[in-house]
Amino acid sequence: MIRISNLHKRFGKLIVLDGLDLEIKSGGIFAILGPNGSGKTTLIKSILGMVIPNSGDIKIDGKSVLKKWDYRNQINYLPQIANFPGNLTVNELIAMVKNLRPKKSNDIDLIELFGLQPFLDKKLGNLSGGTKQKVNIVLTFMFDSDLIILDEPTTGLDPISLINLKEIIQKEKEKGKTLLITTHIMSLVDEIADKIVFLLDGNIYFKGSIDELKLQTKQTDLEHAIANLMTKENV
Amino acid sequence: MRNIYFFTILFFCISPLFAKQIEVCSTCDIKTIKEAILIAEDGDEIIIKRGVYKEHGVILINKSVKIKGIGMPIIDGEFKETILKIKADNFSIEGLKIINVGQSYTKDFAAILVSKSRNFTIKNNILEDVFFGILIEKSHYGTIENNDVSSHAKDQASSGNGIHLWHCSNMQASRNTIHGVRDGIYFEFVKKSKIFDNNSYDNLRYGLHFMFSNENEYFDNVFTNNGAGVAVMFSKFIKMRNNIFTKNWGSASYGLLLKEIYDAEIENNTFEQNTIGISVDGSTRINYKKNTFSRNGWAIKIVGACYENDFAQNSFLNNALDLSYNSKINSNKFDNNYWSDYTGYDLDKNGIGDVPYRPVKLFSYIVHNTPEAIILLRSLFVDIINFSEKVSPVFTPDNLVDNSPLMKNTND
Amino acid sequence: MFKILKYSFYDLMRSRWSYVYFLFYLALGFVLLFLNNDINKAIITLMNIIIVLTPLIGTIFGVMYYYNSKEFTELLLAQPIKRSTIFMGQYLGISISLTLSLALGLGIPFLLYGLFRSTAIFDFGLLLVVGSFLNFIFVALAFNIALSNENKIKGFGYAILMWLFLAVIYDGIFLISLLVFNEYPLDKFSLIATMFNPIDLSRILILLKLDISALLGYTGAIFKKFFGTNLGMIISFVVLFLWVLFPVWRMNIKLRRKDF
């Protein structure tokens, strides 16, 4: 479904993606892992068209998406830091995003699920970080799209909301959606991810299921397996 | 001819009380003005009725007659020559519309030419498409009143003046409207005369022009959008009061030019939106009092040697530059003026600012040396350098100050 | 684009700063008109303020808005909307809200003063038009600077520097070069130099109405043609328009290659 070929991206002298090739088939949860600065966010943003690669190609369903914009109608994206215009209310923001995406949405259910009703008429500038993240999640999941990209989705969430989020993720997976998740929380990866894509030095260092990873690194738990990947690199 | 003269004089001698009226019209016995003048005698009245009279070179000599138009008869000179030539005392011309005066580069053709005459009145006439309008030579005690003189002057060489007086005295020009000629009103070697309530606009050169004319007065006139408003040159004892000078625009254009003037009074005049309000090139003992200078490029520009001029109680309102001075101060005084740019204070509340005002700014010094710099007028940078110059004068004359600037504008 | 414009505009219309800006002009208008009573002086003072302050406020608002709404912009970028649409919407949102603050802030006191009965209405109208142009120009310039600088502090610094340059330093260099090259004919140079600075250009546009008497004092034929006819007005407006178009165009070019 997503086919990335020979993707290069440099920021000044810093090479972030160095001829990256990746193929992600439809359906399932893919955890994109890697040490800080390995290019996870750059990869995601390239797919979203926010970062313009120096060379290479990204195809979704066989069509190149570079310099296009309407394909984003089939992508839901949860950005890492949720910061909204402070003078809009939650309601207005939701209405606005709905307005920008002429698509069916189930925002009401999600608002209820995360208990956001009391905040609907509050200005976004007055909300706590966690509440903002909830709003962020609502905005992401309220549309029905084939591809869902989550960048550190758990930041600032309380345990109940975290459980809710996991449920939503599972549901979306059951609907046959493709989810790309970056996170540093290994337990989350262990719990939900079908496959792991491990980035290192701007390239794919490992791609496969959790079991395959454990097998390859001869570790019994994921955290150690990942640590093992990283130290191997360091040696 | 002799006979006519003889009979005229005879008639005048024996029956001065039996002045008669001569009617002129297309259906009258007398059909032309020339004919009427021919038979007229002293004291007669020539009544010209409504109609068009294609005549020029009409001559009136030594007959004291009244020529009066009824219903604005038109005398069309067909651009040939002077239309009415008069040399007589005690005559009047009234209610005529005289049009299409001949143009010439060598002769001064006029709608009405008066020479060597006394005690006459020219009033309520309309003069259109003139070369010279009313041209008066060597005459005295004449009144030129409520005439409307206009033309379509294109360049100075091929145009004449509206009301032109040469070697005259005790004349009065009042309530006339003059536009589209070279100089609206021109005085050369004219003495003891008055010019008032005239409206002179859209003239090619000057609204009013004085040369070698002493002891004259002009007041309550309006001069708008002329090449330059009023030029007073080589004259003494001129009084200028209550006149309005506006919108005289152009390089070196001004509301009022003073060139080699002595002992003049300039009072209660308004100078508004002229490139230069008053341009002074050599003047001595002039009193400028209670004048208002509003939104001129330069309120006063002094280019020649000036001695003992006194500027008091004038208002300087929002001029781009209040004063430009390129010569020495020469005992000219500024006192008790109102300056809209003044930023001082009045702690003792006596209506007079406690800090002296310096009317010459650094920028006016710069523009004087580099005229293109005018394009930076009112820019922040210019304000900054003006301010620093104000704080510590380096370039501007430090003795040119108004020591008692008024806090409020007193001339309204 | 209209949707983004609408939301940016709403957002700004509710921000405290829009009101501060609006109230500032409101107070300025009242003070100038009702404490002074000389409408010509009020217009001249307003001109001085508009020409210097509108660019400054436009610059600061532009840069500030860009950096403050960076995350929100990223959210928008993930939506199926063209990049240029997002930024043009934001750009117009800021420019229009600033222009509205200016027009209302000054318009209300002038209306109360009885502007329509005064002959100064054209001068005032021109002031507002020029002020609006300056808003659009300097917000666009600020966006350009912000787009080229990831670092907020640097971006702010450059933006303020740009304003300082155009508002003051440019004229200083301009004047000094006029003085230095005094011997040469400078009218063409000075007109061209004016065109290259939107603040100078706006100033000249207003002077054309306000101080035409002074501008016509210079003898040069080019000046005469420029200031004495409608040519000056027309050319100035065209160039001012280009001053809006050029930064907007560059903004769009820059956007195409920008990473967020």
Provide keyphrases for this structure.
heterotrimer, B: 412 residues, mainly beta, Pectate Lyase C-like, 14-stranded parallel β-sheet, 13-stranded parallel β-sheet, 40 strands, 10% helix, elongated, C: mainly alpha, 0% strand
Notes on the protein architecture:
The complex is a heterotrimer of chains A (235), B (412) and C (260). The longest helix of chain A has 16 residues, at 159-174. Chain A is an alpha/beta fold and 235 residues long. Chain A has 8 helices and 10 strands. Chain A has one domain (2-234): 3-Layer(aba) Sandwich (Rossmann fold). By secondary structure, chain B is mainly beta. Chain B has a single domain (55-391), classed as Pectate Lyase C-like. In chain B, 10% of the residues lie in helices and 41% in strands. Chain B has a 14-stranded parallel β-sheet with strand order 1-2-5-8-11-14-17-20-23-26-29-32-36-39, with helices on one face. In chain B, helix 2 (33-39) links the parallel strand 1 (21-24) and strand 2 (45-48). By secondary structure, chain C is an all-alpha fold. Chain C has one domain (2-256). Chain C is globular. The relative contact order of chain C is 0.12. The chains are: A alpha/beta (235), B mainly beta (412), C mainly alpha (260). Chains in contact: A-C, B-C. The B-C interface holds B 247, 249-253, 273-276, 294-298, 317-318, 320-321, 340, 366, 369-384 and C 38, 40-41, 44, 47-48, 51-52, 167-169, 171-172, 174-175, 178-179, 182, 186-187, 189-191, 194, 199-200, 203-204, 207, 210-220, 223-224, 228.
pLDDT under 50 segments of chain A (min length 5)?
A: none
Helix/strand/pairing class of chain A, anyone? alpha/beta
Q: Percentage of helical residues of chain A?
A: 25-40%
Per the CATH scheme, the topology name of chain B is Pectate Lyase C-like
| Rg of chain A, nearest Å | 18 Å
Number of helices of chain B: 4
Provide mean pLDDT of chain A, rounded.
85
CATH architectural arrangement of chain B: 3 Solenoid
Low-confidence stretches of chain B: none
Strand order, sheet with most strands of chain A: 6-7-8-3-9-10
- Which CATH C-level class of chain B is it? Mainly Beta
Distance between the termini of chain A: 35 Å
Secondary-structure element order of chain A, N to C? EEEHEEEHHHEHEHEEHH
End-to-end C-alpha gap of chain B? 62 Å
Q: What is the number of strand segments of chain A? A: 10
Number of domains of chain B: 1
The biggest sheet of chain A amounts to: 6 strands, mixed
CATH fold topology of chain A: Rossmann fold
Query: Widest sheet of chain B: strand order?
Result: 1-2-5-8-11-14-17-20-23-26-29-32-36-39
C-alpha geometry of chain B: elongated
